[in-house]
# Entry
Amino acid sequence: MKLYLVQHGEAKTKEENPDRPLTDAGKNASKKTACFSAEQAQVSVKAILHSGKTRARDTAEIMASYLCPVKGMIEEKDLLPNDDPQEWASRLSEEKEDIMLVGHLPHLSKLASLLLTGSDGKFSIGFKNSGIVCLQREDNNPWALSWLVTPEILGEEYLFKT
# Structure
């Protein structure tokens, strides 16, 4: 099983818009990583799950437009910034199909640490807005970091594809 953890794209400040939708830069960066995911990484997920916050939903919509998940986008609980990562660790122990979670820090970082080390504070991955971290688990083996990508790593060549 593959788990794709996506930090939402850059969002407007509360002063600009209290709902905090993505900025134009956030939209472009999310398109860049979504394009990479579909074309180069050949990501295929059954669903894209998001926290319901505008910035996560906007990012999930962009990912879905490139990845076309069979079950679409689904708003899920326990993906907010300060939610307990143990909830998702438990849910994922039963999951068999590849999925993508679009959420927030520090939750995503704590979840990744918990899955990789058994503790939500032992290991830190440098998540970036619109970045994707791929974790993989084979059968009953432990989770492993498979790859990660950020819009900055992809560079300018993905701009023409977005």
About this structure: The mean pLDDT is 94. The chain is about 35% helix and 20% strand. Residues 2-161 form a domain with the Rossmann fold fold (CATH 3.40.50.1240). Residues 24-39 form the longest helix (16 residues).
